Amino acid sequence: MAMSGSSPTINDVARIAGVSKKTVSRVINRSPLLKEATREKVEKVIAELGYTPNPQARALALRRNFLLGLLHDNPNAQTVLNFQEGVLDAIRDTEFALVVRPVDRRSPDMLEDIRNFLEVQRLYGVLLLPPISENDELAELCRDMGCGYVRMGSAALDTSEHLVQSNDREVVESVIDYLVELGHRRIGLIEGPSGFRSAAERREGFRAAMKRHGLEVPETAVAQGNYRFDSGVEAANKLLQGDTQITALFASNDEMAAGAYHAAREKGIAVPGQLSIVGFDNSPIAAHIWPPMTTVSWPIREMAKSAALKLIDPGSDGAKPSTFPARLVTRDSVGPPPPTT
Amino acid sequence: MAMSGSSPTINDVARIAGVSKKTVSRVINRSPLLKEATREKVEKVIAELGYTPNPQARALALRRNFLLGLLHDNPNAQTVLNFQEGVLDAIRDTEFALVVRPVDRRSPDMLEDIRNFLEVQRLYGVLLLPPISENDELAELCRDMGCGYVRMGSAALDTSEHLVQSNDREVVESVIDYLVELGHRRIGLIEGPSGFRSAAERREGFRAAMKRHGLEVPETAVAQGNYRFDSGVEAANKLLQGDTQITALFASNDEMAAGAYHAAREKGIAVPGQLSIVGFDNSPIAAHIWPPMTTVSWPIREMAKSAALKLIDPGSDGAKPSTFPARLVTRDSVGPPPPTT
DNA sequence: ACGAAAAAGGAAACCGGTGTCAAAACGATT
DNA sequence: AATCGTTTTGACACCGGTTTCCTTTTTCGT
């Protein structure tokens, strides 16, 4: 009775509405076998009391928590944080909460750790960010544990309902088109680490476009990095040395592109005067570096929202995989190739 | 009996060990009034079965979840993410999980939203990141709701056990000492937004050191930003215009310092040749920008870990406020002032 | 108007733990 | 051996929901 502080329970609602708790439960769960009048009566009481079902109790009864998990091993802070924001967009005003779990994909115990985590926390579902979203054993683990999951990826990795992706390949092709149109012929690539689907997609986009334009891609015009700044420096040093004569360069992410800036600067190569650079991600560094970097932006926040909705309300966002369009953001790191060949 | 898949419960343990579930509960909770023999017997069964208490059930019974919340409205992704890692360090191998909740401190509903969130999720405790860690109403709300909390801050804001802080002021003083030692006399300040304790601390450190060296700080040598890149550009433009003749500049965070780089570049001012710049935070951009930026690094991950420990195990990390030392990271954005005055 | 089927609602058990309080076991004393 | 005061332990209710199963009510065909 004295309810200062402690929130009303389903029993309070039932008593005041003059029905059984099961009926209240039915209202909460939108059971279809309820008379409209009853529903309204109960809903009125719920509204009056400001009743919210206790997630802990539901979690216990349903053997399933109202928690969405974000599993990631992501080198890029901004990406992860944007993703978190997107998930929050989806669960705002619901009883769901977001729990985060950074993992170490190089640890041999990763799967075991995650299994433990899932077993203990009994999450409603998990969101898998690249690169671990590409781990098939992990997806299988989720299935085994009866835990919903959605993989973020840049290509088809799974059946329909578990996937949210972007069109990396196409947009990289258009990046190359853009460079070629400006007159570039010798274009270099800093690709991402093997094992990353996104890296493969972007590389394929690059190769396809070059081929379409009848341009060669010599060995020396390609270098591999690991998506981190330092590896970008190193890769660019390789690309820029000797006689390659590259006039433009596409890096598979912004951090490596920033590394390329660094390498160019050390070598006294002007950007974009002597070398045009395009990155990928549109992370803050792209806007903050000098000159501001032309890069590819993908709608991570929207993708995250969609992924979360797939988990908590499969009806709304559907069983089909969702593909979100990335787009080129032109700033000042691209120009025509230098006149003297 | 058939326990494929579903994990064992306290009942299984009790039955097999031949004791009551309450006794098992006592073992789990390290109750001191247990006979050693009983404890061992039960623990053996627990180990054999690989039993883990179900957090949902405990949450229901205790009216308190095993969830730590991270409340933030932070402009810096890397800071937030590092903080998350630190919390994870603390709760690894415990039953705790970390839930994140970005908030909007400019929203008039913020407190109401948070109240709702706390009421529904019944968190074990929350970690408050700057700037909302400085909101006293919020701290009071936590107390009201019976929710543990720890504030991250750069100065005393609360009583002892609720605080983890850094020594911003001192370290900024040492930054200025360093610049003065190199020969700088006209040093500019880009300060952070009003309302941020950290901004005030850093400003005071700056002013104290300048005063100690007998150096003036004219109006025109100070500009205010909001901790974001663009505001850094703007502030630096103000500082660098006309006749100020500043030879060095301290920005209250790295993003604004990066903005100052940008402004300098646009004006054709060489860094560090004509202008030395020091930032604060040691965020990735400091290492990636050109030239690599001298900045202040503070041990956010350790601070986060300490904060989390304060919540989940007040015994271990103690009731006293913890202060963690920040330190200067010297890179290439600082040099002696230009010879021609 | 009647009986049968369908719809609506309720009682009680259950999810897996913890709290309360009384009972049992134990040790020391007499 | 009986008594008493501590430890230890257990029975049972409870946390706030859901599920199962059964009863009551409504609807409808004939």
Automatic annotation (TrEMBL), chains A, B:
Residue span(s) of domain HTH lacI-type: 8-62
PROSITE patterns to which the protein is assigned, alphabetical: HTH_LACI_1, HTH_LACI_2
CDD domains (alphabetical): HTH_LacI (cd01392), PBP1_SalR (cd01545)
GO MF term set: DNA-binding transcription factor activity; transcription cis-regulatory region binding
SUPFAM superfamilies listed in its UniProt record: lambda repressor-like DNA-binding domains, Periplasmic binding protein-like I
Keywords for the protein's UniProt record, in alphabetical order: DNA-binding, Transcription, Transcription regulation
Region (Disordered): 314-341
Protein name, as recorded: LacI family DNA-binding transcriptional regulator
Organism name: Pontixanthobacter aquaemixtae
